[in-house]
Amino acid sequence: MEKRVMTDSKRRRGLIAVSALLGGVLVLSACSSDDGDKAADGGKKSQAEADEAAAKDASAARIKITPKDGENKAGINNAARVTVSEGKLTAVTMKTSEGTAVAGTISADKKSWKPDAQLERATTYKVTAAAKDSEGREAHENASFTTVSPDNSFIGNFTPDDGKEVGVGMPVSINFDKAITDKKAVQSGIKVSSSSGQEVVGHWFSPNRLDFRPEDYWKEGSTVTLKLSLDGVEGADGVYGVQQKTVTFKIGRNQVSTVDAKTKTMTVTQDGKTVKTIPISAGAPDNPTYNGQMVISEKFKETRMNGATVGFTDDDGKGEYDIKDVPHAMRLSTSGTFIHGNYWGAKSIFGSANTSHGCVGLADAKGANDSKTPGSWFYDNSLIGDVVIVKNSPDKTIKPDNGLNGWNMDWSEWKAGSAV
Predict the structure, then answer these.
(1) Which one of 18, 71, 202, 228 is separated from 64 by 20 to 30 angstroms, measured CA to CA?
(2) Residue range 283-303, pLDDT digits in tens
């Protein structure tokens, strides 16, 4: 019995020892679990600290690419640009979606970049830019945009051309390839000025045509500047301008020629002085010449004139006349009025009879090679933009929008047609 009790006591002590051991293991396990949580927390804290450190070490340079990424109606002139603040650009590349590189230039201060030339319409471009801040840390930015298509853009075809010398009556005439509904926005993007200081005002003849002129003819010897700032201007719903350019033209001597249909003569003046009087033949009584101030808009040493193109046809539908080599022809109206040489008429009609279908005829020679004829002299001494005034004809005054003939509208009415 005693032995058994002792055995139970040993067993009890052994169980206690095992329990203690197991307790120790449990304690140790618990401590290990606590340490693991701390390690895990410490890991999280370390990652957050790493993120914070990385943010603190990021470049201060801020790159901006315009147009914004995804733009699909970007302008083709001034829209594309890369700028940086708090740093300097180190590299910029622009390519089309097909991989064609676009040349561009970083500014001297390395704060901006732009393409060297106008972009193409309906084209997707990809831009990649890099910059460094004052500590040499790099920043990068990428963007892709698409320029306006022909369907959602408009252009203005203007006259006269850059660098030309023209007569004192030459207006700036702009014909848009799409109808303009926001005339104020478009006209605000166009400036016409003269070195003479004359006030210049625009007048809308239609949603597609805008002309500019001063109250009186341009001052001889002055320079006129046309500035188009239409890139990105919304001229109609979803239709944007793409032009950004400046052109200048010079006003020549002041030549005005006055045709008197009654006396059948034309008096040519330069700077107010008569330089030549020429006998003419104007429109016949059945087809009189328009009255009014007309501007020479085109010059042709020789051209074809077919009556069918301006409504003069016979019973068979053919032109009442078809002359394939009219010499020294100068257009005065869109509807077909010209002042031109005439070699087929009798010399006796000039100064004595009006025989044409509405044009003003001057004696001339076939082939346009005789410089001694009145037709040749007038052609050689005329500029596009010179004024030809017709008076004392039984016809009405020509409409201001029939050719470049806005001078037939008084100044108050002209200004009333401005949108600004």
Answers:
(1) 228
(2) 999 999 999 999 999 999 999
